[in-house]
Design goal:
This protein is of the alpha/beta class and about 400 residues long. The protein has 2 domains: about 5-65 and about 95-175, Rossmann fold (3-Layer(aba) Sandwich), CATH 3.40.50.620; about 180-360, Argininosuccinate synthetase, chain A, domain 2. The chain is built from 12 helices and 14 strands. The protein has helices at about 15-30, 50-55, 65-80, 90-110, 125-135, 155-165, 240-255, 280-295, 300-315, 325-335, 365-370, 380-400; strands spanning about 5-10, 30-40, 60-65, 115-120, 140-145, 180-185, 190, 220-230, 230-235, 240, 260-265, 270-280, 340-350, 350-360. Helix 2 (about 50-55) links the parallel strand 2 and strand 3 (about 60-65). Helix 4 crosses helix 5. About 40% of the residues are buried.
């Protein structure tokens, strides 16, 4: 059953699902399969990917280095918004998917492909993120969502592992250790296996980017992060590119046991899901960014921006990165960052990320006004009328009750 599909561009990671999907597409649609892998910071996960894709049946593979674009155009905009989902998740996977899908659409156009394909399941969030991006950028492209396809023959990870063994497809999972991991410059996520029990503590051997706090150094590490208009631009005074900055802060923070998150989150499709995340550098950048904002942002502007953080995070999490409301929201966020330039000094110690200093050429902090010592600029008696006027409605309310 080809449905007129002769050539497909598959978003390919080399993991269990997409490794199996290459062979499944060839058998089911009798089509040419072009694999596409986006380098968004997976490190060693990309090793041997070309050979593996060709061995599995793909006609060719694109492996595109998108690390700088990912950090500059996806991670940093979310950082400027202080985006965090359900108070815990820094959106590592959510931010990578729209970039991956965007480049996939570009390759499909270049290759004159009939369809694009992804390996996200019908239970998760990634299916939405991929497909909403496809619709936003090329509504006419045909979409093969393998797990939702009528011809899909698998009902579990175990059945896919058996299929991979049949066709001698190398896979990173085994039935004894069925953990799924997704890594990029911002984080690595862990799901599946024992982690599906929300009461079970994650085994130490799943962690990749972070030391356990118990094994972190016994002395604190101090790091200074410079920001310009809300974007991190330097570490300890050294200016580096966005992707290299992410790599650097990940190493420093991970060595100090920072950034582990174990949460049960609400997926867009309606169910709750347990995920374990490592976001070492992102955790430090988030705290440092807020520290610089604390001395550079007007109170009311900050309050209004903060009220929009849950909405921004929800839009990113749910896959609406290219929606008009997201573009409008980002424009407002960026306007609030005009004066967010300065330096945050961070103390990292055994899983703790502590702000110990902040400075800025645009600082709104005035020691002469804030001091508890004698000053010449503030008349404390002015507060009498200020408090009375703010308390007037409370006074009237109490009078009426009497």
């Amino acid at each position: 059953m080809s449905r007129g599909i002769k050539k497909v561009v598959l978003a390919y990671s080399g993991g269990l699902d997409t490794s199996v999907i290459v062979r499944w597409l060839i058998e089911t649609y009798k089509c040419e399969v072009i694999c596409y892998a986006a380098d968004v910071g997976q490190k060693e996960e990309l090793t041997g990917l070309k050979e593996k894709a060709i061995h599995t049946g793909a006609s060719k593979i694109y492996i595109d280095d998108l690390r700088e674009e990912f950090a500059r155009d996806f991670v940093f905009p979310a950082l400027r918004a202080n985006a965090i989902y359900e108070g815990t998740y820094l959106l590592g996977t959510s931010l990578a998917r729209p970039l991956i899908a965007k480049r996939q659409i570009e390759i499909a156009k270049k290759e004159k492909a009939d369809a694009v394909c992804h390996g996200a399941t019908g239970k998760g969030n990634d299916q939405v993120r991929f497909e909403l991006t496809y619709y936003a950028l090329n509504p006419s492209i045909k979409i093969i969502a393998a797990w939702k396809d009528d011809n899909w023959i698998f009902d579990s990870r175990e059945s896919m592992i058996d299929y991979a063994k049949k066709y001698k497809i190398p896979i990173p999972l085994t039935k004894a250790k069925p953990y799924s991991a997704d890594r990029n410059l911002l984080h690595i996520s862990h799901e599946g296996g024992i982690l599906e029990d929300p009461w079970a503590e994650p085994p130490e051997n799943i962690f990749v980017l972070t030391k356990s706090p118990e094994k972190a150094p016994d002395r604190p590490t101090y790091v200074e992060i410079d920001f310009q208009k809300g974007n991190p631009v330097a570490i300890n005074g050294k200016k580096i590119s966005p992707a290299k900055l992410m790599d650097t802060i990940n190493l420093i923070a991970g060595n100090n046991g920072i950034g582990r998150v174990d949460m049960v989150e609400n997926r867009f499709v309606g169910m709750k899901s347990r995920g374990v995340y490592e976001t070492p550098g992102g955790t430090v950048l988030w705290a440092a960014h807020r520290a610089v904002e604390s001395i550079t942002m007007d109170r009311e502007v900050m309050m209004m921006r903060d009220s929009l953080i849950p909405k921004y995070a929800q839009l990113a999490y749910n896959g609406f990165w290219y929606a008009p409301e997201m573009q409008t929201l980002q424009a407002y966020i960026d306007a609030t960052q005009e004066n967010v330039t300065g330096t945050a000094r961070m103390k990292l110690y055994k899983g703790n990320c502590i702000v110990v200093g902040r400075k800025s050429p645009h600082s709104l902090y005035s020691e002469s006004f804030a001091t508890f010592e004698k000053d010449q600029v503030y008349n404390q008696k002015d507060a009498i009328g200020f408090i009375k006027l703010n308390g007037l409605r409370l006074i009237i309310q109490k009078m009426l009750k009497k």
